[in-house]
Amino acid sequence: MQAVTEATQEIARAFVPHGAVLGIHPHGRGLINDTYLVSTDNPGQPRLILQRINRRAFPEPELIIANLRTLLEHIHARQRHDPRERDLRFPDLCPAHDGRDFILDAEGALWRALSYLENTCTFDKPDGLPRAAETGFALARFHTLVSDLDTRSLHDTRPDFHNTPRHLERFDRARAAAGPLPESEDLGFCLSFIGARRRLAGQLEAARLKGELPVRVIHGDPKLNNFLFDETDGHAVSLIDLDTVKPGLLQHDVADCLRSCCNRVGESPGLGEAVRFDLEICRMLLQHYFAALGDRTPFSDTDLLYAAIRLIPFELGVRFLTDYLEGNHYFRIEYPEQNLVRATTQLRLSAEIELSEKDIKEMIGELVMDKKQD
Ligand code: GN1
Ligand code: MG
């Protein structure tokens, strides 16, 4: 759990130039950055999300702030001009007392504050079809809002983020460096599953390099718990955690969203909880995604969507396992074997997706056809 130290309190105070800090509490379940909810006695700025950016994940956090500024300016401008664009809300960057929108602490870590979107909640696990519909809708609205943002105006905050062959190379190095591995059923499953699918790992990257898939602005991390929902009526309100917004493939975003939304047991299931890929949720989410996608973002390249749906949990499984082998220095853990459990879960999910390949491809075909006939 992220600690609230005296230093954290001092940083929080720097983002509350007018008024006092009333409370600071660790917030959310992100695996990378440290996040706190700060309450203040300033009626103009009642609550803030304060975050310390993890330099291991983002070696140049200033680029994240620059991207965030570009992105929020773009979205807010579109929303000012067209009321129909206002169905999603986005936070504002809050300046510190010196007017800058970030602070470097004594150790050189970068902190930033965002306005908190009140009366919202998040979910770590899917809870039914209405949530899936709202999530698909919100992802499409996000993609539409950024569809005319020039990809060249954003920095690549994590190069090769979805370059699966690169992740495999790193995994190979970690495995070689780890020496003899303990006997474990999960580890055995992971190693043989990865070994048997190496040649499929380059599918999306190869298509991107050949120019078969257009590069667009994507969210980069649209997992279920990065969507905010209205506490009262359940409607999607926002898509947060904008640090990985950058040029990429829409297929990666849609697949990453399905990865978390179709897996009812979540990323760290307990013993004996079986991992499944829920096809009903998948259909509902995709249906609402395609329906809400603006005409300026035609999702013409659906052929590789199935490939991405299979690949994204595979890639994340490889990343979790690599971190486990490297000593768990990247993803936050609550117990020593957690990254192995997470890796096994993602790879089992990929295996489940393979079993439903025909159904998923047919489903995508039908939904695309419906969209064309609209
Ligand atoms: C990380 O920080 P968080 O929890 O939003 C990770 C994503 C993974 C996700 C899995 C920068 O996201 O790529 O899909 O964990 N973010 C980064 O839960 O590596
Ligand atoms: Mg994230």
Task: Give structural notes.
The protein is of the alpha+beta class and 374 residues long. It folds into 2 domains: 6-116, 2-Layer Sandwich (Phosphorylase Kinase, domain 1); 129-373, Aminoglycoside 3'-phosphotransferase, Chain: A, domain 2 (Alpha-Beta Complex). It is 44% helix and 12% strand. The protein contains 11 helices and 11 strands. It has helices at 6-14, 61-81, 129-145, 164-178, 185-196, 203-209, 250-261, 279-292, 303-326, 338-355, 357-373, and strands at 21-26, 34-40, 47-52, 93-94, 103-104, 110-115, 120-121, 216-218, 227-230, 236-239, 246-248. The strands form 3 sheets. Strands 1, 2, 3, 4, 5 and 6 form a 6-stranded antiparallel beta sheet that branches. The protein has a 3-stranded antiparallel beta sheet with strand order 7-9-10, with helices on one face. A hairpin with a 5-residue loop joins strand 9 (227-230) and strand 10. The radius of gyration is 21 Å and the shape is globular. Bound molecules: 2-acetamido-2-deoxy-1-O-phosphono-alpha-D-glucopyranose and magnesium ion. Magnesium ion (MG) binds at residues 30, 32, 221, 241, 243-244.
